[in-house]
Protein backbone atom coordinates (compact mmCIF):
# COMPACT_ATOMS: atom_id res chain seq x y z
CA UNK A 1 0.00 0.00 0.00
CA UNK A 2 1.32 3.40 -0.94
CA UNK A 3 1.42 5.78 2.02
CA UNK A 4 -0.01 9.28 1.61
CA UNK A 5 -0.06 12.42 3.77
CA UNK A 6 -2.96 11.09 5.86
CA UNK A 7 -1.05 7.92 6.75
CA UNK A 8 2.15 9.83 7.48
CA UNK A 9 0.32 12.30 9.72
CA UNK A 10 -1.43 9.59 11.74
CA UNK A 11 1.77 7.55 12.08
CA UNK A 12 3.65 10.67 13.19
CA UNK A 13 1.08 11.61 15.85
CA UNK A 14 0.89 8.01 17.11
CA UNK A 15 4.69 7.73 17.37
CA UNK A 16 4.98 11.10 19.13
CA UNK A 17 2.22 10.13 21.57
CA UNK A 18 3.89 6.82 22.37
CA UNK A 19 7.22 8.55 22.99
CA UNK A 20 5.61 11.29 25.10
CA UNK A 21 3.85 8.70 27.28
CA UNK A 22 7.04 6.67 27.73
CA UNK A 23 9.08 9.74 28.66
CA UNK A 24 6.37 11.07 30.98
CA UNK A 25 6.04 7.78 32.86
CA UNK A 26 9.78 7.84 33.58
CA UNK A 27 9.58 11.50 34.48
CA UNK A 28 6.67 10.82 36.84
CA UNK A 29 8.75 8.25 38.73
CA UNK A 30 11.67 10.69 38.93
CA UNK A 31 9.44 13.47 40.28
CA UNK A 32 7.95 11.18 42.93
CA UNK A 33 11.33 9.76 44.00
CA UNK A 34 12.89 13.21 44.28
CA UNK A 35 9.85 14.71 46.01
CA UNK A 36 9.69 17.54 43.49
CA UNK A 37 6.72 19.88 43.88
CA UNK A 38 5.70 21.24 40.50
CA UNK A 39 3.95 24.58 40.04
CA UNK A 40 0.59 24.55 38.29
CA UNK A 41 0.25 27.25 35.67
CA UNK A 42 -3.09 28.60 34.47
CA UNK A 43 -3.93 29.20 30.81
CA UNK A 44 -3.25 32.94 30.99
CA UNK A 45 0.59 33.11 30.91
CA UNK A 46 1.03 30.59 28.05
CA UNK A 47 -1.56 32.44 25.95
CA UNK A 48 0.18 35.77 26.56
CA UNK A 49 3.53 34.20 25.64
CA UNK A 50 2.06 32.61 22.49
CA UNK A 51 0.45 35.90 21.40
CA UNK A 52 3.66 37.86 21.90
CA UNK A 53 5.69 35.23 20.05
CA UNK A 54 3.35 35.26 17.04
CA UNK A 55 3.26 39.06 16.97
CA UNK A 56 7.03 39.48 17.24
CA UNK A 57 7.74 36.78 14.66
CA UNK A 58 5.20 38.20 12.22
CA UNK A 59 6.50 41.77 12.54
CA UNK A 60 10.10 40.62 12.28
CA UNK A 61 9.46 38.62 9.11
CA UNK A 62 7.50 41.51 7.61
CA UNK A 63 9.97 44.31 8.40
CA UNK A 64 13.43 42.76 8.18
CA UNK A 65 15.09 40.99 5.23
CA UNK A 66 15.64 37.29 5.83
CA UNK A 67 19.38 37.63 5.23
CA UNK A 68 19.55 39.57 8.51
CA UNK A 69 17.48 36.99 10.35
CA UNK A 70 18.87 33.78 8.90
CA UNK A 71 21.38 32.96 11.63
CA UNK A 72 19.20 34.22 14.48
CA UNK A 73 16.22 32.09 13.45
CA UNK A 74 18.35 29.03 12.72
CA UNK A 75 20.11 29.39 16.05
CA UNK A 76 16.77 29.62 17.85
CA UNK A 77 15.46 26.44 16.22
CA UNK A 78 18.76 24.66 16.84
CA UNK A 79 18.44 25.38 20.57
CA UNK A 80 14.78 24.35 20.61
CA UNK A 81 15.58 21.02 18.97
CA UNK A 82 18.63 20.35 21.14
CA UNK A 83 16.81 21.13 24.40
CA UNK A 84 13.76 19.02 23.51
CA UNK A 85 15.89 16.02 22.54
CA UNK A 86 17.99 16.44 25.69
CA UNK A 87 14.85 16.25 27.85
CA UNK A 88 13.89 12.94 26.25
CA UNK A 89 17.36 11.37 26.46
CA UNK A 90 18.29 12.83 29.84
CA UNK A 91 15.92 10.50 31.67
CA UNK A 92 17.74 7.36 30.49
CA UNK A 93 21.30 8.50 29.72
CA UNK A 94 23.92 10.41 31.72
CA UNK A 95 23.45 14.15 31.28
CA UNK A 96 26.73 14.55 29.39
CA UNK A 97 25.90 11.79 26.89
CA UNK A 98 22.37 13.11 26.40
CA UNK A 99 23.73 16.60 25.81
CA UNK A 100 26.27 15.45 23.26
CA UNK A 101 23.71 13.41 21.30
CA UNK A 102 21.13 16.21 21.41
CA UNK A 103 23.61 18.85 20.24
CA UNK A 104 25.03 16.53 17.56
CA UNK A 105 21.54 15.87 16.21
CA UNK A 106 20.69 19.57 16.15
CA UNK A 107 23.95 20.44 14.40
CA UNK A 108 23.36 17.64 11.87
CA UNK A 109 19.95 19.19 11.15
CA UNK A 110 21.62 22.57 10.69
CA UNK A 111 24.17 21.27 8.17
CA UNK A 112 22.20 18.38 6.64
CA UNK A 113 18.45 19.16 6.93
CA UNK A 114 17.03 16.09 5.17
CA UNK A 115 13.27 15.68 5.52
CA UNK A 116 13.52 12.46 7.53
CA UNK A 117 16.03 13.99 9.97
CA UNK A 118 13.96 17.16 10.33
CA UNK A 119 10.82 15.15 11.13
CA UNK A 120 12.66 12.85 13.54
CA UNK A 121 14.20 15.70 15.55
CA UNK A 122 10.95 17.68 15.56
CA UNK A 123 8.97 14.70 16.82
CA UNK A 124 11.43 13.84 19.59
CA UNK A 125 11.73 17.49 20.64
CA UNK A 126 7.95 17.94 20.78
CA UNK A 127 7.64 14.81 22.93
CA UNK A 128 10.19 16.40 25.27
CA UNK A 129 8.31 19.67 25.47
CA UNK A 130 5.02 17.84 25.98
CA UNK A 131 6.49 15.87 28.88
CA UNK A 132 7.59 19.10 30.56
CA UNK A 133 4.63 21.41 30.06
CA UNK A 134 2.03 18.67 30.48
CA UNK A 135 3.06 18.27 34.12
CA UNK A 136 2.55 21.94 35.01
CA UNK A 137 -0.72 22.55 33.14
CA UNK A 138 -4.06 20.99 34.06
CA UNK A 139 -6.10 19.32 31.29
CA UNK A 140 -8.72 22.07 31.56
CA UNK A 141 -6.09 24.78 31.11
CA UNK A 142 -4.59 23.00 28.09
CA UNK A 143 -8.02 22.69 26.48
CA UNK A 144 -8.65 26.41 27.03
CA UNK A 145 -5.30 27.21 25.41
CA UNK A 146 -6.06 24.90 22.49
CA UNK A 147 -9.51 26.46 22.02
CA UNK A 148 -8.09 29.98 21.85
CA UNK A 149 -5.30 28.92 19.50
CA UNK A 150 -7.88 27.13 17.34
CA UNK A 151 -9.50 30.50 16.66
CA UNK A 152 -6.13 31.99 15.75
CA UNK A 153 -5.35 28.96 13.58
CA UNK A 154 -8.62 29.29 11.65
CA UNK A 155 -8.24 33.04 11.09
CA UNK A 156 -4.56 32.70 10.21
CA UNK A 157 -5.13 29.98 7.62
CA UNK A 158 -8.20 31.62 6.08
CA UNK A 159 -6.39 34.98 5.77
CA UNK A 160 -3.26 33.38 4.30
CA UNK A 161 -1.10 34.63 7.18
CA UNK A 162 -0.08 31.13 8.27
CA UNK A 163 1.21 30.05 4.86
CA UNK A 164 2.87 33.45 4.41
CA UNK A 165 4.95 32.83 7.55
CA UNK A 166 5.74 29.25 6.55
CA UNK A 167 6.83 30.33 3.07
CA UNK A 168 8.99 33.13 4.47
CA UNK A 169 10.72 30.80 6.91
CA UNK A 170 11.24 28.17 4.20
CA UNK A 171 13.44 30.73 2.46
CA UNK A 172 16.07 30.05 5.14
CA UNK A 173 15.38 26.29 5.34
CA UNK A 174 13.15 26.56 8.42
CA UNK A 175 9.79 24.79 8.39
CA UNK A 176 7.99 24.69 11.78
CA UNK A 177 6.03 21.62 10.69
CA UNK A 178 6.41 17.98 9.77
CA UNK A 179 7.13 17.71 6.05
CA UNK A 180 5.89 14.65 4.18
CA UNK A 181 6.99 14.04 0.57
CA UNK A 182 4.38 12.77 -1.84
CA UNK A 183 6.95 10.35 -3.27
CA UNK A 184 8.90 7.92 -1.12
CA UNK A 185 12.11 8.69 -3.01
CA UNK A 186 11.96 12.33 -1.86
CA UNK A 187 12.69 11.69 1.83
CA UNK A 188 16.31 12.64 1.13
CA UNK A 189 15.34 16.13 -0.07
CA UNK A 190 16.84 18.88 2.06
CA UNK A 191 14.73 21.69 3.50
CA UNK A 192 17.14 24.12 1.84
CA UNK A 193 16.05 22.71 -1.54
CA UNK A 194 12.38 23.47 -0.87
CA UNK A 195 10.90 26.86 -1.59
CA UNK A 196 7.29 26.64 -0.54
CA UNK A 197 6.50 29.91 -2.24
CA UNK A 198 6.87 27.94 -5.49
CA UNK A 199 3.70 26.10 -6.47
CA UNK A 200 5.76 23.22 -7.86
CA UNK A 201 7.41 22.64 -4.47
CA UNK A 202 4.06 22.97 -2.66
CA UNK A 203 2.78 20.04 -4.71
CA UNK A 204 5.61 17.64 -3.84
CA UNK A 205 5.21 17.84 -0.04
CA UNK A 206 2.44 18.17 2.54
CA UNK A 207 2.71 19.71 6.01
CA UNK A 208 1.46 18.90 9.50
CA UNK A 209 1.95 21.81 11.88
CA UNK A 210 4.38 21.28 14.71
CA UNK A 211 2.08 23.24 17.01
CA UNK A 212 -0.85 20.94 16.22
CA UNK A 213 1.16 17.95 17.41
CA UNK A 214 2.87 19.83 20.22
CA UNK A 215 -0.31 20.99 21.95
CA UNK A 216 -1.85 17.54 21.50
CA UNK A 217 1.12 16.04 23.35
CA UNK A 218 0.88 18.60 26.16
CA UNK A 219 -2.78 17.66 26.66
CA UNK A 220 -1.95 13.95 26.56
CA UNK A 221 0.73 14.29 29.23
CA UNK A 222 -1.48 16.57 31.32
CA UNK A 223 -4.21 13.92 31.39
CA UNK A 224 -1.63 11.24 32.19
CA UNK A 225 -0.27 13.28 35.11
CA UNK A 226 -3.73 14.16 36.45
CA UNK A 227 -5.69 10.94 35.90
CA UNK A 228 -3.41 8.06 34.92
CA UNK A 229 -2.56 5.85 31.99
CA UNK A 230 -6.06 4.67 30.95
CA UNK A 231 -7.47 8.21 30.49
CA UNK A 232 -4.24 9.08 28.70
CA UNK A 233 -4.75 6.28 26.17
CA UNK A 234 -8.38 7.35 25.68
CA UNK A 235 -7.18 10.91 25.10
CA UNK A 236 -4.64 9.63 22.59
CA UNK A 237 -7.44 7.92 20.70
CA UNK A 238 -9.55 11.09 20.69
CA UNK A 239 -6.59 13.09 19.37
CA UNK A 240 -6.06 10.55 16.58
CA UNK A 241 -9.73 10.81 15.61
CA UNK A 242 -9.42 14.59 15.66
CA UNK A 243 -6.45 14.50 13.32
CA UNK A 244 -8.23 12.04 11.04
CA UNK A 245 -11.20 14.40 10.84
CA UNK A 246 -8.88 17.17 9.62
CA UNK A 247 -8.57 15.44 6.26
CA UNK A 248 -12.36 15.23 5.91
CA UNK A 249 -12.61 18.93 6.77
CA UNK A 250 -9.88 19.64 4.22
CA UNK A 251 -11.80 17.92 1.43
CA UNK A 252 -15.24 19.19 2.46
CA UNK A 253 -14.49 22.83 3.23
CA UNK A 254 -11.01 23.77 2.00
CA UNK A 255 -10.93 22.04 -1.39
CA UNK A 256 -7.72 20.21 -0.51
CA UNK A 257 -5.85 23.41 0.35
CA UNK A 258 -4.17 24.53 3.61
CA UNK A 259 -6.46 23.57 6.50
CA UNK A 260 -6.39 24.59 10.18
CA UNK A 261 -5.83 21.34 12.06
CA UNK A 262 -6.14 22.69 15.58
CA UNK A 263 -9.96 23.22 15.61
CA UNK A 264 -10.90 19.59 14.75
CA UNK A 265 -8.21 18.20 17.04
CA UNK A 266 -9.35 20.44 19.91
CA UNK A 267 -13.01 19.59 19.34
CA UNK A 268 -12.31 15.86 19.42
CA UNK A 269 -10.09 16.17 22.49
CA UNK A 270 -12.63 18.33 24.30
CA UNK A 271 -15.45 15.91 23.50
CA UNK A 272 -13.36 12.96 24.65
CA UNK A 273 -12.39 14.68 27.89
CA UNK A 274 -15.99 15.72 28.52
CA UNK A 275 -17.22 12.14 28.08
CA UNK A 276 -14.54 10.91 30.47
CA UNK A 277 -15.69 13.48 33.03
CA UNK A 278 -19.31 12.32 32.69
CA UNK A 279 -18.23 8.70 33.04
CA UNK A 280 -16.16 9.50 36.11
CA UNK A 281 -12.95 8.30 34.48
CA UNK A 282 -11.14 11.56 35.22
TrEMBL record:
Is Membrane set as a keyword in this record?
Answer: yes
Under the heading InterPro entries, the entry gives:
SPP
**Pfam families to which the protein is assigned, alphabetical:** SPP (PF06550)
- Where are its TM segments located? 46-66, 78-109, 129-155, 204-223, 229-249, 261-281
The record ties this protein, via PROSITE patterns, to:
PROKAR_LIPOPROTEIN
Alphabetically sorted, this entry's keywords are: Membrane, Transmembrane, Transmembrane helix
Protein name as annotated: Uncharacterized protein conserved in archaea
Keyword field contains Membrane: yes
Taxonomy of the source species: Bacteria, Bacillati, Chloroflexota, Dehalococcoidia, Dehalococcoidales
Amino acid sequence: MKLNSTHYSLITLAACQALAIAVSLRQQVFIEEEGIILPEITAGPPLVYFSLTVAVLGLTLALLPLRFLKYLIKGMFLLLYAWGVFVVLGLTLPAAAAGVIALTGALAWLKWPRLWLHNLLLGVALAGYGSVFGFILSPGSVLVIMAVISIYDLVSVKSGHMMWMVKKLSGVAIVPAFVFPRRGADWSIELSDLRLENEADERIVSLLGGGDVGFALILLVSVLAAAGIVPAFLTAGALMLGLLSVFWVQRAFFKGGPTPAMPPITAAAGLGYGLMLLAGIV
